[in-house]
Amino acid sequence: MRLKKGLIEVYTGNGKGKTTAALGLAMRAVGHGLKVYIFQFLKGRDSSELNTAKALAPNLVIEQGGSKTLYKGKPSDEDIRLAHNLFKKSQDIILKGDYDVVVLDEINVAIHLGLISVEQVLSLIEKKPEHLELILTGRYASPEIIKVAHLVTEMTKIKHPYDEGVEARKGIED
Q1: pLDDT tens track for 79-109
Q2: Quick one: CA torsion of 159, 163, 166, 170, rounded to 10 degrees?
């Protein structure tokens, strides 16, 4: 199966569920025989979705491009290098056209931090194959990205256990 027309979807906002929504879409796509590639910017730690991807390979691939530790403040040279390398790989995969759905997880944050330019992402969006569904996630979606997207969902945090000191739980948030 191949999509006739792939759209641009954005999941943004300060609420939980952006990556989860993209992963749910990925599972649905794989269930219909589509091939999915997920690029996780700013993520380098083991997480349960990596185990799921291994079980669904080769129809689902997840590749991370972030350090093992989350940083606060100015990104390191290593963070910049990892983001650039992952973006280059995502460009190659997207332009090759072998996948039906590509997720650029946390790309909005990478743009916000100056790791990737919004112009680079807009250029990639313009060049994407017609059939490819492109999902961009992360807080801080730029107005330029929102303008070219077909679907934009903003997740809004009303209440979150993290605010009460509850860390991410394996199998639920991690």
Answers
A1: 899 999 999 999 999 999 999 999 999 999 9
A2: 60
Regarding predicted confidence, which is higher, 149 or 166? Answer: 149
Number of residues that this document lists for the chain: 174
Distance CA 118, CA 127 (A): 14
| Domain annotation covers residue 169 | no
CATH, residue 124: 3.40.50.300
Residue 41 and residue 18 in contact, taking contact as beta carbons nearer than 8 Å: no
Domain of 104 in residue numbering reads as 8-158
The helix/strand/coil state of 158 is coil
Report the domain count for the chain. Answer: 1
CA 75 to chain centre: 19
Average pLDDT value for residue range 165-173: 78
Q: Are 118 and 144 in contact (CB under 8 A)?
A: yes
pLDDT in tens, 31-83: 999 999 999 998 766 667 777 777 777 888 888 887 655 556 678 888 899 99
Angstrom distance (rounded) from CA 163 to CA 154: 20
